[in-house]
Amino acid sequence: MGEVNSILIPRLTMRTPFVDEPEILENQVSLVQSSENQAEQHHGTECPEVHAAEMIIMGTGTSVGVPVVGCQCDVCRSQNPRNHRMRTSVLIRGPQGEFVIDTGPELRLQLVRENARLIQAAVFTHAHADHLLGLDDLRIFGYRMNAAVPLYCEEQVEEQIRQVFSYAFAPPTEQSHNFAVPKLRFIHIEPGVPFTLLGMSILPIRLKHGNLPVLGFRIGDVAFCTDVSTIPAESKELLRGLDTLIIDALRKEPHPTHLHVDAALRLIHQMQPRRAYLTHMSHDLDYDTLLKELPDHIEPAYDGLKIALQTIVVE
Fold first, then answer.
1. What is the DSSP string of the chain?
2. Out of 2, 148, 217, 283, which could bridge 183 as a Cys pair, Cβ 3.0 to 4.6 Å?
């Protein structure tokens, strides 16, 4: 499995490297290339040192978000910021850099809010619009690195990305300038086959979103499983021994392609994580009301929720 193992630019005030800053751009490219060379030399070898990392749940809403445009329900009019839910995206901030899981429509706003510095890759659960349509917001990062941003996904997701963002893959003669379109490249991943990204081992897990096969991801003892209605038996075994499970819970009533709250609670009981968070929630679910109804070790997630990751870094 291919990998990109880049080093995050030091956490100083970062200016965008435009054409009058060739030295900054050259230094960033040098860091990326140096890291890729190291990855080729050390692929498959593990360092036993455990490093702290962080998962930030940037969006916890359903496909139309919350508040829903034009809706006057109590949740949509709520002043509680934990009832304000952007579409799905996750920021992983590790010892060797940052990447995202999914690129929802509010991706730029989410990354600005979380003070992201340099997104060096994206990993995809599936290609529905609410998980994909912010992809062009990665354009600035390809420009800064002077390299294509790797997209880790299944083959069918690549096909849909190429269709939706066809302009990004047009011949260069049709592009007005170097910054006009995002620079992207694809790396295929498979359920049950771990891959290494920015020093972290990531395990894709097969889930079903109605009849659509999608992916969840396990990083260390934390798993993110959005947009799921059923979990195959073999995948449940990959979700044992978790500290934290983030799982879909669209609403109170059953839904054909998403878990509802009771179904999510049953799965959590089967998996026995130490704690769990519900995500991909609609405006049917009020944060405070739901929190009071849930067991002590289960909570609704909210935009900006930070979850510690303890990972063994793969050099």
1. -----PPPPPSSPPPP--TT-HHHHHHHHHHHHHHHHHHHHHTT-----EEEEEEEEEE-B-TT-BSPTT--STTTT---GGG-BPPPEEEEEETTEEEEE---TTHHHHHHHTT---EEEEE-S---HHHHTTGGGGHHHHHHHTSPEEEEE-HHHHHHHHHHTGGGGS-GGG-SSTTSS--EEEEE--TT--EEETTEEEEEEEEEETTEEEEEEEETTEEEE-S-SB--HHHHHHTTT-SEEEEE---SS--SSS--HHHHHHHHHHH--SEEEEESB-TT--HHHHHHHS-TTEEE--TTEEEEEEEE---
2. 148
Name the pTM for this structure.
0.83
- The DSSP bridge partners found for residue 245 are 223, 276
Does position 113 have pLDDT exceeding 70, yes or no?
Answer: yes
In whole angstroms, what is the distance from residue 98 CA to residue 39 CA? 16
Give the model's confidence band at 277: pLDDT under 50 very low, under 70 low, under 90 confident, else very high. very high
Query: What tens digit of pLDDT does each residue of 168-181 get?
Result: 998 876 557 778 89
Question: Distance (Å, rounded) from C-alpha 147 to C-alpha 14?
Answer: 18
Strands 195-197 and 305-312: unpaired
Q: Among residues 110, 75, 87, 98, which one has the least CA distance to residue 289?
A: 75
Non-local CB neighbours of 112 within 8 Å, separated by 6+ positions:
none
Record the tokens describing residue 207, joined without a space. Answer: 């889930």
Asked if residues 276 and 304 have their Cβ atoms less than 8 Å apart, the reply is no
The tokens of 108 are what?
């730029």
Strand partners, 305: 57
End-to-end CA distance of the chain: 15
Q: How far is CA 137 from CA 17, 111, 132, in A?
A: 16, 10, 11
In the predicted structure, residue 256 carries a pLDDT above the cut 80:
yes
Show the domains of the chain with their CATH numbers: 22-312 (3.60.15.10)
